[in-house]
Design goal:
The protein is of the alpha/beta class. The protein has 16 helices and 17 strands. It folds into three domains: 240 residues, no CATH class; 184 residues; 78 residues.
């Protein structure tokens, strides 16, 4: 999806001292102020990564082969502007990795496997294990009883028993297969049904039985090569190279017993597959990913709130959309995600949908070929954006305070037939079709969707997460290789990233933002607010009345010091909160002096309208199971 460049190896280091240079080049000394007027600081953070092997011996795994795949560093970028040919805003962050390889001893392994047996519930093989048994080339047949093992309990056990520092990320590779007490098994999460329909995906669907999980309450992700086979990565299919029918071979990791001379993978390839999973899933998608959109675009002005406004369009005479959404639940999850803001979620209803809005959606779904504002962009996918945001936003989204940031969400409760060519589309968080800046969310629900288990609430949280900046855990960016990749073809195995604790997954097992989401957003915000503060401080110092706001600057500097301290201590929520307080206090000083502040326009730079950006939505995956 993107061009490929050679490895960039530019070293940037932390600086917090006062200078007039354009960028920071050295760390601050004790006693020096944290804020640096007119300096853009690149915060370099050491990121230890533990790679733990449970059920493997050092003779079975060549860590050198794994290490050959691993990155030395990562600098997050704002992904979407790059599709328009723009580098986007410099995030001001650099991660430098160190790797620690840990093989657990027989005693740990024995106790862990006993624990899996203890908490597992026996049952019949899953639909996809049976499909695996029906393959022509499978090495063996999965036999019951199969253990259904709670994934979050396993994550908690590993995070506790491994006794590793919380100031690191950990990936655990598991192999129970060689143990005499081995049982075929899968992992489950069944405690969060859909908040609107009550449908329990984790309990009812074989397609939601997993081989990996993590990030619910720890910085750990485990991947069990001896679990499954399962649906989400299609590793049950050992007969076909192209499993999604797009004409390209799909690379995936089979269960451990298929690493055999007669199996799906050469046994020597296990080390490489561990390296691929560590780099292209754990690091790039979970531990230290890049944002989809610029998170600072959604920062409210001084004293402002973050407001989710849901515009419910009623396009189904037999059903009412407001019956299938909980604004209170939406607000609860966003408040838990970004507690350093004041949140508000409101909803208005257009019942029935007006003629103009209905036409716009019919154009988008291919049911009407009329010319309209989409013609300017040459793509009917642009119709919702240009009609609801460019031309008619005040009609559907109320005006709030000047300092508030509003997430505009247009929800369409419609009939199955009215989805036309877009049947199966749950929603999308659109950009502005100019430079890759987020614009509005569009989402859909129908009787068919609800029969499958989907209401509006989970989609609202998911698409709102995109709008705030988050990518999926199955697609992302590799900084050293400069490639943006989806879970297709050579990266098909990246679907395993969905098997983690986040509403940004397609797997529908939680409606919450997980530890990995929070860590990353808070780091992005900390660097963003501190660099905004540096920019604003320079303007304040240039004002003749600067002395009158000196106390505000002192408070801001103290908060900036706290932010940097917490950032280095892996207390990322506290870091983001302190960084925002630093910037907000300078914004107060600016309002006193009449100095303008950086705002959303900081990230809005005019770019030509390229037609290469991948405008697409979030579909229902595995509608049949």
């Amino acid at each position: 999806m993107k061009r490929l460049f050679t490895l960039a190896s530019i070293l940037v280091v932390l600086s917090l001292f006062f200078t007039s240079a354009a960028s920071a080049t050295s760390p601050s000394a004790p006693g020096q102020p944290a804020l640096a007027p007119d300096v853009f600081v690149d915060y370099t953070l050491p990121i230890p990564v533990n790679i733990v092997f449970v059920g493997y011996t050092p003779s079975q795994v060549d860590t050198g082969d794994i290490a050959a795949w691993l990155p030395a560093a990562y600098e997050p970028v704002v992904r979407y502007p790059e599709f328009y040919g723009s580098p986007g805003r410099d995030m001001g962050l650099r991660y430098e990795f160190t790797y620690n390889y840990i093989f657990k001893n027989d005693a740990f392994n024995t106790n862990f496997f006993k624990y899996l047996k203890f908490i597992g519930t026996p049952g019949d093989p899953t639909l996809f294990q049976e499909d695996y048994n029906d393959q022509v080339n499978n090495i063996l047949d999965v036999t019951g009883p199969v253990l259904y093992i709670p994934a979050t309990r396993v994550e908690t056990y590993l995070a506790t028993k491994l006794g590793l520092t919380t100031k690191a990320y950990t990936i655990v590779f598991i192999n129970w297969y060689n143990d005499p007490g081995f049982k075929f098994h899968v992992y489950t999460k069944t405690d969060e049904p859909d908040p609107d329909t009550g449908y329990n995906f984790g309990s009812l669907r074989s397609s939601r039985k997993m081989i990996a999980y993590g990030g619910s309450a720890s910085r750990l992700w485990f991947y069990d090569f001896s679990a499954g086979p399962e649906a989400w990565t299609d590793n049950w299919n050992v007969d076909d190279t192209d499993v999604d029918g797009d004409g390209y071979s799909d690379y995936r990791m089979p269960p451990i017993w298929e690493y055999d001379a007669a199996g799906f993978h050469d046994p020597a390839g296990l080390d490489d597959d561990m390296g691929l999973l560590t780099r292209f899933v754990a690091i790039n998608l979970l531990f230290t990913p890049s944002p989809l959109y610029d998170p600072m675009v959604t920062a409210p002005g001084y004293g402002g709130k973050k407001i989710v406004h849901i515009n419910m369009m009623e396009d189904d005479p037999a059903n009412t959309g407001t019956d299938w959404i909980s604004p209170a639940k939406v607000n609860q999850e966003f408040k838990a995600f970004q507690p350093h803001y004041t949140w508000q979620t409101n909803m208005t209803q257009v019942d029935p949908i007006d003629a103009g809005a209905q036409l716009a959606i019919r154009i988008f779904t291919g049911l009407d070929s009329s010319n309209d504002c989409w013609n300017f962009y040459g793509d009917t996918f642009a119709e919702p954006f240009c009609y609801f945001e460019e031309l008619n936003r005040p009609t559907y989204i109320p005006t709030y305070g000047a300092a508030d940031y509003v997430v505009p969400i247009h929800a369409f409760n419609t009939e199955d037939a009215s989805m036309g060519s877009q049947l199966g589309l749950l929603g999308f968080a659109d950009d502005n079709w100019v430079d890759g800046t987020q614009s509005a969310v569009f989402q859909f629900d129908t009787p068919y969707y609800r029969a499958l288990g989907y209401g509006f609430t989970a989609t609202t949280i998911h698409e709102g997460g995109h709008h705030l900046s988050l990518s999926h855990p199955h697609d992302g960016y590799d900084w050293e290789m400069d490639i943006d990749y989806p879970a297709l073809g050579n990266f098909y195995f990246a679907n395993s990233g969905d098997e983690s604790h986040t509403v940004m997954s397609y797997i529908s097992l939680t409606n919450k933002f997980g530890m990995f989401n929070k860590d990353n957003l808070y780091r992005w915000e900390t660097a963003g607010y501190l660099n905004w503060a540096n920019e604003l401080l320079a303007d304040l110092q240039a004002d003749p009345g600067y002395a009158s706001v000196a106390m505000h600057v002192m408070f801001a500097n103290n908060q900036a010091n706290m932010a940097v301290l917490q950032l280095n201590n892996w207390n990322y929520a506290a870091a983001a909160s302190a960084a925002r307080k630093a910037y907000e206090r300078l914004a107060l000083a600016a309002s006193i002096l009449g100095v303008s502040t950086p705002d959303q326009a900081f990230a809005l730079r005019a770019r030509p309208n390229y037609n290469e950006a991948p405008h697409e939505g979030d579909p229902i995956r595995f509608p049949d199971n």
